[in-house]
Amino acid sequence: MSEALLLEGPHKRGPKGPSKYTPEFIEAEAEALLKYCNESTIPFLKDFCGKRGYHSGRIAEFAKNEKFSEALLIYKDKIETQIVYGSITGKLNATFAIFTLKNIAGWRDKTEHELSGPDGTALPGAAPVNIKIINVEPTRSDTQEEAPRTTVVEASCQTSP
After folding, report:
1. The pTM is what?
2. Average pLDDT, whole number, for the chain?
3. C-alpha pair distances (Å), 100 with each of 35, 40, 58, 78
4. How many angstroms separate the CA atoms of 76 and 82, rounded?
C-alpha cells in the first residue's frame, strides 16, 4: 500500500492529498456554527451545512473535535429552547413542536401507573403478582441456521383466602 494512503497523524491522507478538514478548520466551523445559531430565527443544522459547503454527515466527524462538540451542544440547547418558546407564544404550531422535540431533543410522552394508594399502601383488593422470565437458548436446526431466542413469561397472582 502506498505511504500516501496511510493515516498520518490526525489528518487522513488520500490520493488528493491531506484532508481539508484540519483541526483548525473544524474549530473555525465551531465558531461559525455559534454565529449561525445567534443569527438564525430557528437554526437548522442541514441548512448550516449546505451554506458551508459540506453534507450534514460531516457533523459526526467534526463532533470528535472538543471545541466543535461544545458548539454542537450549545446549538442543540438553543434550538430546543427556541422551539419551546415558539410553541408557547403561538409562533410555531404546537403539534409540529412536539413532533420535532421528540425527534431531535429526546422528548417522550410519559405515562405513570400507580401501583399503590396515595399514602403508599397497597390498593384495596390488590394481590401480589409474581412474574418469572425464562430465556430459552437457541438451538441449531438441520439447516445450521440459528433458531430465534425465545422468552417465556410465567405470571401468577396470589389471592387472599
Report:
1. 0.57
2. 77
3. 23, 17, 22, 14
4. 10
